[in-house]
Amino acid sequence: MPSVPAQAYLVCATPRSGSTLLCEMLLATGRAGRPLEHFEVLSHTSLPRQPREYFVGCTDSELLEVLAPLEPGTPNAESPEAWWAKIRAEGSSENGVWGGKLMWGHVDDLLGRVHRLAGLRDADLATALQALLGGPPLIYVTRQDRVSQAVSLWLAVQTQSWRADPIPSAQASHADNVRSPLGARYRFAGIDHLVAGLEADDRAWREWFTRSGHRPLIITYEELDRGPQETVGRVLGELGLGDVEPPTPALHRQRDVRSAEWARRYRIERERAA
Predict the structure, then answer these.
(1) Which of 87, 130, 140, 270 could lock 216 by a disulfide, CB 3.0 to 4.6 Å apart?
(2) Mean pLDDT of all residues belonging to the chain
(3) Distance, first Cα to last Cα, the chain
(4) Measured between alpha carbons, how far is 43 from 170 in angstroms, rounded to an integer?
(5) What is the pLDDT of residues 221-272, one digit of tens each?
């Protein structure tokens, strides 16, 4: 069985929900682990999920033409033991606290790796988290405005720009096809597909919380936007780190007039279609 951190927590999320802001602020404390997307690199390509992988089964040529072609990548060859040892080390701050973030879209890949670890061949997600992290407290980051969330994701998958102030990451390291945000195009079908996908992921998380008996601390994008330091302070208190001072947020908001206009246009077109 894998070794378990002395203290751990996991941020559960869907894309463009505010989880990056939350995790960057927790990381900046230096005492709340390193809650990065340790599970974003997929085993079949050794790359994070690519733009077209959000649209599996889609044949709309007008939609696909604005997305970068799929990169084949290379299947990951590291042993499951080496994989977990690396993630445990990468997620830990000097005080021994481990932090991480998991998107619902990465759960299947995570379980595929876990099933290769000794004694975990048939583990479900709850069993996997217990074995790897000792049944950590969970924080669920969600966004109430699903349309704005989908618009933000639609812009990100076109430009492969995932944050306003990029840092080196697995997501950025292979993105040779990064495009200017000015070249991004509105597509009703693209946003509509992502709205449905985000709703499905949110539903999957909530159903799993109920089924597994977990009661996560729920944080919304909207409250993070209104009061990031107060919200992070609440998370730190939940983790038993109430004496840690929440840092000033370093990330810049990516939404702008165009995002608002696309969200408004999408709502009008969806109402007409209905």
Answers:
(1) 140
(2) 91
(3) 52
(4) 13
(5) 999 999 999 999 999 999 999 999 999 987 656 667 999 999 999 999 999 9
Beta-carbon neighbour count of residue 263 at 10 Å?
19
Please give the model's pTM, rounded to 2 decimal places: 0.91
Q: Which two tokens stand for residue 153?
A: 């994701």
Q: Which of 186, 162, 190 is nearest to 175 (CA)?
A: 162
Query: How does DSSP assign 4-57, residue by residue?
Result: --SEEEEEEE-TTSSHHHHHHHHHHTSSS---B-TT-SBTTTTBPPPGGGGGTT
DSSP at 92: B
Residue where the block lists tokens 């009008």: 268
What is the Cα 202 distance to its own chain's centre? 12
Handedness of CA 192, 196, 197, 201 (dihedral sign): positive
**Residues 6 or more apart whose Cβ sits within 8 Å of residue 216:** 12, 137, 138, 139, 140, 209
Decide if pLDDT at 168 tops 80.
no
d(CA 169, CA 47): 11
Structure tokens at 187: 């597509």
Q: Is 40 a catalytic residue?
A: no
Helix axes 257-273, 146-159, angle to 10 degrees: 120
Q: Spell out the alpha helix ranges (H) of 70-145.
A: 80-90, 107-114, 125-133
Residue 55 pLDDT > 90: yes
What's the pLDDT band for 210 if we cut at 50, 70, 90? very high
pLDDT of 172 > 50? The answer is no
Q: Which two tokens stand for residue 44?
A: 């079949």
Give me the catalytic one of 37, 78, 223, 238. 37
